[in-house]
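Before going further, learn to read the protein records used in this course. The integers have meaning only within a learned vocabulary of local backbone shapes. The record below shows the convention in full.
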Amino acid sequence: MKIAIDAMGGDHAPTVNIVGARDALKKYPDIETIFLVGNSELIKQEIQEHQLTDPRAVIIDAPDVVEMHESGAKALRRKKKSSISIATDMVKSGDADAVVSAGNTGAAVAAATVKLRTLRGVERAGIASAIPNEYGICQLLDAGANPEAKPEHLLTYAVMGAVYSHFVLGVKQPKIGIMSNGEEDEKGTKFTKETFALIKDLESSGNAPFDFVGNVEGHDLFESDLNVVLCDGFTGNIILKSCEATAKAMSKWLKEEFKRNPLRILGAIIAKGAFKAVKKKSSYEYVGGSPLLGVNGVCIIGHGGSSALAIENAVRVARETVSLKVNPHIEQMLDRINAESSHSV
């Protein structure tokens, strides 16, 4: 297995990408090569400083960088030799099995959709971001790739999310809901109501690879036994960033309150193990990265503020997505549904 890392992508690049690659190579002997794509001189310096001596790490020079503040699609057109562009080209040519980037999300999505195209039966790709809840992992899909989605796009997301949950997360029969402003069937916008009707129709046909629970609300992301929650990319990105901001704020407030007197400090020390466990469960570092489902190749998108641990785990997600053949399973499922259903997905 060969994985290309956008070494210049992210707020803390290239350091975290080099260290993350180093740690992933130590952990996963089945990875044949990790390509570090970016400014070769900077990468060489980081490799030396962080003692990355594994010969499976190979540098691929890319002189341009798409900065985090740039418009992804426009920058991609101007900077044809950017690290994200060249890394994605390697997947297109078959030189790499997956690309991992913690850089500009718009550029990563544009590069993957333009260069790799979409899978057979998929019109729009979607980002599946993991939200930890009381029952395990719930995938929020789409978390930002397709802001102006159509109901039929979300129908495809339902199938792709179910396939990913089944083969990667080990869920026998995934439970899927639509994000809305109430659980009642009649709630929601015209968009969500049309999506509801399409998914309900597929479930009624007996060909759905999931159980449809109907409309869900924000609290269900954390409190309900759900595996996939569907929404357009605009809504999903707002939800994801709101969740991240809330978690950071709560952590900051707790630290401030614990420091107010010695007794609270003692309590914090006693509860240190519990706090670490909660952090591990909720942190994006341990989740790793979010797969861009629907593109004809494996693209894993990491958090812009990714640490080395987050990059290591993003490589793990890429490795799992490739080895468990998620894309072939998605195409097979869509083919089967379209062949057996009166309404194509």
